[in-house]
Design goal:
By secondary structure, this protein is α/β, with parallel strands linked by helices.
């Protein structure tokens, strides 16, 4: 078992550092002895540590083989007798080859170690049992993450970066601060007492638990020991002696020990730890999260310990300091052993009769022993997160038990033992398997007042008799499957939670009802009788109610009413005129008008957004004098009511949201009546001006949003708004930069998508300015001085000037994107976006959105790395499900240590040519984890492509998390951390939180108009339909994205919000093909050829943008230029004039790829053409200067970026076959003959390489060019070639050095042109050359191979 076959002979790779061949160890384990170097930041291996070819070949033979990285301990613990814990850094690391059947005992034998340890996510360290199989543990871990392919699992297991999630140690690692918290010990000089009567003596001093232990060095275990309790005592610095502390106990008979330390570091460690102990009021010892299997024996000397916290450890039973010895703590009252994976209940704990609090949650218990009834003083027992199905009857003996937690177990009914536990007032059974709610069982428990049955499987309710229950006051039935609920028998019910069920009807008793939460159901009727006179809060949002219940209108004490997201058509007068109502939420209904107000009302918050209102009540602001918040966005308001009837306004309105209405300039004067206004949103209305005199009076204004209107200027009186910190005015027609840089508190300014042309800035900018967005102003030109002035701003967004881009395939015609991110009311932006319009050689695009919730580090990491990971995975697999899943899983691994505690939602959209569906040009693959979503607009309708992985919206994921015994808190968060069930990162929450994404693919059609990507905050406030309708008619994608974020903020979003809009144009109108071959313009065309000796090898592009123009590190640019340049001017063959009239290949777009077997491949080569020039632009032998050619003297150097593709069939270029001269033997040896052909203004010049056979042929007489000029370097250059290159050089950008480098991609104007005054001369010369050339042999013509075409950009 575990026998490993020897690897193949030969040296190991890499050669550095030197390696010894694998050696055979006991048990058949092969260990690679090499010095592994670590990455200082992530503690991962670099590439030098990877195994060589022999090991790699050995692994390929069987997927059940693999390797385990065995790390040394970072710090080794010291014994109690040592001076202190010494840290020994170990840099050597072993790579152990084994199989999935190899147990830990064999690896230990091969390594000469006693045991192995496993660390998950850089946190706890667990000792492996001898029978456990390390490689199988790794494979199971990867399989749970989401890897399915055994070969890929084998590859991932061999990746050293996996150590950030899963790592094996040969020794147990411990951090120094953990060791100090467990035990401090050392031999120091000690003096007893406060006086100097006693002498200094060398003693062993131990600080453990709550006591200081002083003993003799020789008889430390058997001799006399002095124990000094420190809780409530003192630790003081002895000033008369260096590095000396005085430890004193509490009480009237306090004792004191002076301890002198040798170094400052020891002195500080002891002072820091002892100060924590003496500051406690209760004798508490916290040893949680220390990977302990037992407590130190010195802890038992602390007999005053009352509370011991051992949460998140690996405590064992039969150990000197194990759980079986805890009965020695005579005063122990509280013990926390949660998350210790005990498996079975420690029976000996039942002998600690002093216990009053015991926490044993998440330990995998399936039953409880009957001895638990011996803990008669127990008051709190927590057993959450186990596998219990029953409780023993002996538990009923615990008459003092007042709290019993059995949530997230496997109970199918309420245990009967609750009837005996009369001190219990709560039944807490969330996350179990109850299917029937039997009220008769609860009627037998008169002591129970609170019932928590959330997240069960409740479907029905059973009432066996009509006798009412007078005891239950609080009921929590959230996240079940109830369809009808009648709790009218609970006559004393005060609070009910029944959110996220499937309720159609709800019936309650109103005698004592105070709060009712019934959101997210299907309610059409809610019956409460009698009228709840004590009701204060009623939440019925996201239901199917068509009217507000009558009993709610009669409730005299109601303060909060939320009936948003229903089907209401009117608001009763009694509701709006209520003398107790302070908060009314009626948004997202069908209300057409609000009733008029007659009396003054105490209403403070009114949300009426997304209705059908055309006007507000005329007396709204005059009668609702306490109104502070009003949101009337997304209505059809054309005017606003006046704020006051007299001269002075009494309005207290502070927040006013009127976005997406029909308001005009006439509403602005009304706003003056609200002098306390702090936030004003008037976006997406019909404002054309904002009177300066009106804005001048809004002195308290802090946030102003005027985007999406028709404003041409912002009034200069905005300078009087001294408290303004946010101005959003994008998507207007503003041409003059507003005077906002004088405001002392301005922080955020968004003037994107306007008509700004210049900016007048003051001498100094306000220090508070953090974000300035000027994108989308096409006519704006910023001088360097202005940019320097803005350099201190944290975020400055301006348009990047478009680079010259022309290529045979222009993918920007198919899609374009716009991105908007807004921080809201938070201090930092925790979302990032990814946008690559030209991905994977320009034939696709990638867009992504990442939301870190409260952290900004992970979204930025994913933004920088995820596209590169996708590019690598696309090259390994063509299956969209496979490469998308692997992209997420690999990105999850690459987060390293940052992903251990932090997490992020991620959304990735990949557009690529569709090879599977011939009717579609492109396919869209979307993958996501978390809450970021993508929606496709198809024929004007939204098509969701993502899945929301949250506990509230995904019952299947919630059940998976429950089955794995996670604790879901009342706010629906996994272990109180996150509501998401799948994230990238958060590895410490494995296996509850996984990185495996949801993946969907859809072919894009001509009906697909746009794609919207957004984070959680966006989709919480905008429906899919509204988002699509809001941007489908916006021309600019940037303005569309800005609009979505503005709408979300106006609808109530206060969190980070991000939106990306991708406009799609994948129909035939987006085609850029040339379907027919075009002849060259002008009377004459020609082509010249150049042979290149050793062209560089094509390399795989490493950039996710698809642009690969880098050189191999083995050959520098100058080397390539010199080599190619000398060859290019060596020998030339000419082609007849008719070659210029060749039917050139059609340029094809991604919609209509070239119907050949060839695949486009970019070859990052550089060809340099050199010719010596005199100062007047002449060759050394020329007599006349060339007209129109201007040179800088010296040398002309042209760098040519060659794009290679396979050639067409021979019959596609018959003219070339007929007119091309026979190459010489040297040219055949080179293998390629380049021909430069003239192109029209759309296509670039291309090189035609003609491959030749290796057979010997007769040397052609055309080896030397008849009409070429011999240059000073001895090379022969045809006249037309020389003139053509000179002409191209004159059009290239100048450099002071006298050289120029042509752009990597050809402009349409860059083409080979024959000067008109030379056309006739060139034509005659070429004709004469063709006539004097001997006819090529027919046999050799047959051997002429197909000419490859090189798309050459100068």
């Amino acid at each position: 078992m575990g026998e490993v076959e020897p690897g193949p002979a030969g040296p190991l790779e890499p050669p550095e550092p030197p390696e010894a061949p694998p050696s055979r160890r006991p048990g058949g384990i092969r260990v690679l002895k090499r010095t592994m170097k670590r990455n200082g930041s992530r503690h991962c291996l670099n590439r030098r540590s990877r195994f060589g070819s022999r090991e790699r070949d050995w692994l390929r033979e069987d997927v059940k083989r693999g390797c385990v990285y065995l790390y040394g301990a970072d710090t080794a613990t010291a014994t109690a007798a040592s001076a202190s814990a010494t840290a020994s850094s170990s840099s050597d690391l072993h790579l152990v080859l084994c199989t999935v059947d190899t147990p830990a005992s064999e690896i230990c034998a091969g390594e000469g170690r006693e045991r192995l340890y496993l660390q998950l996510h850089g946190d706890l360290v667990r000792r492996l049992e001898p029978t456990e199989r390390p490689l199988q543990i790794v494979y199971d871990y990867l399989s749970r993450l989401g890897f399915d392919d055994p070969v890929r699992i084998q590859e991932e297991a061999a990746n050293p970066d996996l150590g950030c999630m899963l790592r094996f140690y040969g020794e147990k690692p411990c951090q120094m601060d953990h060791l100090d918290r467990i035990l401090l010990s050392g031999i120091y000089n000690v003096r007893k007492g406060k006086t100097q009567l006693h002498k200094w003596a060398e003693r062993l001093v131990v600080l453990c638990g709550t006591c200081l232990i002083v003993s003799s060095v020789k008889d430390c275990q058997t001799g006399k020991m002095h124990i000094l309790p420190l809780v409530g005592g003192k630790v003081e610095e002895v000033k008369r002696r260096q590095y000396c502390l005085a430890f004193s106990s509490a009480g009237a008979q306090a004792q004191t020990y002076h301890v002198s330390f040798e170094t400052l570091a020891e002195y500080q460690r002891w002072q820091r730890q002892s100060s924590k102990v003496v500051s406690q009021r209760i004798s508490t010892v916290d040893l949680s999260c220390h990977s302990l299997e037992e407590v130190p024996e010195h802890l038992f000397y602390s007999q005053d310990i009352t509370y011991l916290n051992l949460r998140h450890n690996f405590m064992q039973l039969e150990r000197p300091g194990g759980l079986d010895t805890f009965y020695k703590f005579s005063q122990l009252k509280g013990l926390n052993l949660s998350h210790n994976k005990l498996g079975s209940f420690p029976v000996l704990l039942c002998e600690i009769s002093t216990l009053t609090e015991l926490n044993l949650s998440c330990n995998g218990f399936h039953d409880l022993p009957s001895q638990i009834g011996n803990l008669l003083n127990l008051q709190t027992l927590c057993l959450d997160g186990n596998f219990l199905t029953t409780l023993p009857e002996e538990l009923g003996n615990l008459q003092q038990l007042s709290s019993l937690g059995i949530s997230f177990n496997n109970f199918s009914q309420i245990p009967k033992v609750y009837e005996k536990l009369t001190m219990l007032d709560k039944v807490v059974m969330a996350g179990n398997q109850l299917e029937v709610l039997n009220l008769e069982v609860l009627n037998c428990m008169s002591h129970v007042k609170h019932v928590d049955l959330r997240m069960n499987h409740l479907k029905t309710m059973v009432i066996e008799n009509l006798e009412g229950n007078k005891y239950i006051t609080h009921m929590d039935l959230r996240d079940n499957q109830l369809t009808d609920l009648d709790l009218s028998s609970l006559c004393n019910l005060e609070q009910l939670h029944c959110e996220r069920n499937q309720l159609r009807e709800l019936t309650l008793s109103g005698f004592s009802l105070r709060t009712l939460y019934a959101n997210s159901n299907r309610l059409t009727a809610v019956n409460v009788y009698p009228v709840p006179s004590l009701l204060t809060s009623l939440e019925l949002c996201r239901n199917l109610l068509e009217c507000v219940p009558d009993w709610a209108c009669e409730a005299k004490k109601i303060e909060i009413l939320d009936v948003s997201y229903n089907l209401l058509t009117e608001i009763p007068v009694r509701i709006l005129s209520s003398l107790s109502l302070r908060k009314l939420m009626v948004g997202h209904n069908h209300v057409q008008n609000l009733p008029a107000l007659v009396e003054h009302i105490p209403l403070e918050v009114l949300d009426i957004q997304h209705n059908l209102l055309t006007r507000l009540p005329d007396t709204l602001f005059s009668k609702a004098l306490n109104l502070r918040y009003l949101n009337a966005s997304a209505n059809s308001l054309e005017s606003l009511p006046s704020a006051c009837t007299g001269e002075e306004s009494l309005s207290a309105l502070q927040l006013l949201y009127l976005t997406n209405n029909l308001l005009t300039d006439q509403c602005v004067p009304v706003l003056v009546g609200h002098p306390h206004l702090r936030i004003l949103h008037l976006a997406n209305n019909q404002l054309q001006t904002f009177p300066a005199s009106k804005l001048n009076k809004l002195e308290q204004l802090e946030e102003l949003n005027l985007s999406g209107n028709k404003l041409k200027t912002i009034p200069t009186t905005i300078a009087n708004c001294k408290r303004l910190h946010t101005l959003v005015a994008h998507s207007n027609h503003i041409s003059i930069f507003p005077e906002i840089l004088q405001l002392p508190q301005i922080q955020f300014v968004d003037l994107s998508c306007n008509d700004l042309t210049e900016i007048l800035i003051p001498e100094s900018l306000p220090a508070t300015l953090q974000d300035l967005d000027l994108t989308g102003n096409t006519n704006l030109v910023l001088e360097h001085k202005t940019l320097d002035t803005f350099s201190h701003i944290t975020t400055l967004k301006i348009d990047q000037k478009p680079l010259p881009t022309t290529d045979s395939t222009v993918t920007s015609t198919f899609w374009s994107h716009g991105l908007a991110e807004m921080a809201g009311q938070r201090n930092k932006l925790c979302i990032s976006a990814l946008a690559v319009d030209n991905f994977a050689e320009g034939v696709g695009a990638v867009y992504g959105m990442f939301d870190g919730d409260r952290n900004e580090e992970l979204p930025r990491l994913l933004q920088c790395t995820m596209a590169d990971v996708l590019l690598e995975e696309v090259q390994q697999s063509t299956n969209d499900t496979v490469f998308m899943a692997h992209t997420f899983l690999v990105s999850h691994r690459k987060l390293g240590m940052a992903g251990q505690k932090l997490g992020s939602s991620a959304l990735l959209c990949y557009i690529r040519p569709d090879t599977a569906d011939p009717t579609s040009s492109f396919s869209l693959t979307v993958a996501n984890v978390g809450t970021c979503q993508a929606v496709l607009c198809r024929s004007g309708k939204p098509l969701p492509l993502s899945k929301v992985f949250s506990l509230e919206q995904d019952p299947e994921e919630a059940q998976r998390v429950k089955d794995q015994k996670a604790i879901i808190t009342e706010d629906n968060k996994v272990n109180g951390v996150t509501c998401c069930t799948r994230l990238l990162g958060c590895t410490y929450l494995y296996p509850w939180i996984l990185p495996k994404p949801h993946i969907s693919s859809t072919p894009l059609t001509i009906q697909d108009e746009l794609l919207i990507l957004g984070n959680k905050a966006l989709w919480e406030h905008l429906s899919y339909t509204e988002a699509v309708n809001a941007v489908c008619h916006v021309q600019d994608p940037l303005a569309a994205a800005k609009k979505l974020c503005t709408l979300a903020q106006s609808y109530g979003c206060q969190d980070n919000v991000g939106a990306m809009v991708v406009y799609l144009n994948v129909g035939e109108e987006g085609c850029t093909c040339e379907m027919n071959g075009l002849t060259l313009p002008g009377p004459v065309g020609f082509a010249s050829t150049a042979a290149i000796k050793d062209p560089p090898k094509p390399t795989t592009p490493s950039s996710s943008s698809g642009i690969a123009s880098e050189f191999s590190s083995e050959m520098s640019t100058s080397e390539v230029s010199s080599e190619v340049g000398s060859t290019a001017s060596d020998e030339h063959n000419t082609v007849g004039l008719d070659a210029g009239l060749l039917s050139r290949p059609e340029r094809r777009c991604s919609l209509h790829p070239t119907p050949t077997s060839g695949v486009f491949q970019r070859q990052p080569s550089c060809a340099t053409f050199s010719s010596n020039q005199s100062d007047n632009g002449l060759d050394s032998d020329d007599d006349q200067p060339v007209e129109g050619v201007m040179t800088n003297g010296s040398k002309v150097e042209v760098e040519v970026d060659i794009h290679c593709c396979r050639g067409r069939q021979l019959e596609n270029s018959p003219t070339l076959r007929e007119n091309s001269p026979t190459p010489c033997l040297e040219e055949r040896a080179r293998g390629l003959v380049f021909g430069i052909r003239r192109q029209n203004s759309v296509n670039s010049g291309i090189l035609l390489p003609v491959s030749k056979d290796k057979t010997e042929l007769q040397k052609s007489p055309s080896t030397s060019c008849l009409y070429g000029k011999k240059l000073s370097n001895g090379s022969i250059v045809p006249l037309e070639d020389s003139l053509n290159l000179i002409e191209v050089a004159t059009e290239a950008p100048r450099k002071k050095t006298g050289y120029f480098a042509a752009p990597a991609q050809l402009e349409p104007e860059d083409q080979f042109v024959v000067p008109r005054d030379l056309e006739e001369e060139v034509k005659e010369q070429m004709k004469h050359h063709q006539e004097s050339r001997p006819e090529p042999d027919s046999s050799e013509e047959g051997r002429t191979e197909l000419a490859e075409e090189f798309d050459t950009a100068l």
